Amino acid sequence: ACSRQGDVPAAEAILARLSRAVEAVGEPLAVGSFNAVVRTCAVAGDVGAASRWLAEMGRMKVVPNHMTYRHVLEACAQAGATSQAEAGLFGMVREGQEPSSEEFRSVLRACASRGDGPRTEAWLSRMEAVGEAPNVLCHNAALAAHARARDAGAALAKLRALEAAAPCAQPDAASYASAATACAAAMRLPEAEAL
After folding, report:
1. Are 53 and 38 in contact (CB under 8 A)?
2. CB environment 95-104: b (16+ within 10 A), e (fewer)
3. CA torsion 169→171→174→176, rounded to 10°?
4. Residue whose C-alpha is closest to residue 51's, from 42, 63, 43
5. Alpha-carbon distance 112 to 119, whole Å?
6. Whole-number pLDDT of residue 52
7. Lowest mean pLDDT among 3-7, 80-84, 127-131
8. What pLDDT digit, counting tens, does each position of 71-80 carry?
């Protein structure tokens, strides 16, 4: 329950009690126990706590898994912490974990929340360069970045590229809504209405 509500102090208290219990029988905490706390940090958008728990896992010799990194990156996305999201993805790769479109999408969402279209597009290119095909949700992050930046030209170009690439990444309602938002914000109302 505390995880769904993003109640980091409650999740940390539960982990502390669990830690004492398993230490009493000479067992280490499982990675899943840490993941539950890091997931709570993600729901709360608490990048500092998520990073602190990732470091604590290292200190306790508990190897983070794919889900650990996914939750840390999601915390970064929730908080719009672009630099931390990028560092988290690079850290994941350094530790031998291969990021999927979900992890890349967290970085893209962090960029989008800042309205950083060029940075978002650069991450889409990085995804493709490592053989990870961006899905429509990833492309929608770029569209959202262009909308936040009020860059109608970039949003329309991205939408047209998606339409041309279909069915690989078929634009959806969110794609068109972001492009329309960018057009409306840039006072290109006829184009917004046409979408």
Report:
1. yes
2. eebebeeebb
3. 150
4. 42
5. 9
6. 92
7. 3-7
8. 999 999 999 9
Q: Are 40 and 3 in contact (CB under 8 A)?
A: yes
Supply 187's token pair. 């006072």
Q: In the predicted model, what is the mean pLDDT of residues 56-73? A: 92
Q: What angle do CA 118, 52, 56 make, to 5 degrees?
A: 130
Tell me the per-residue pLDDT of 92-132, one tens digit each, with 9 for 90 and over: 999 999 999 999 999 999 999 999 999 999 999 999 999 99
> To which residue do tokens 């939408």 refer?
159
Q: Where are the beta strands (DSSP E) in 1-141?
A: none
Task: Write down how long the chain is.
Answer: 195
pTM of the model: 0.85
Cα 175 from Cα 107, distance rounded (Å): 18
Calpha distance 65→185 (Å, rounded): 41
Mapped onto helix, strand or coil, the DSSP state of residue 182 is helix
Tokens describing residue 78 = 């929730």
DSSP 8-class letter at 132? -
Contacts of 95 (CB under 8 A, 6+ apart): 64, 69
Instruction: List all residues 6 or more positions away from 151 whose beta carbon is below 8 Å from its beta carbon.
Output: 117, 182, 186
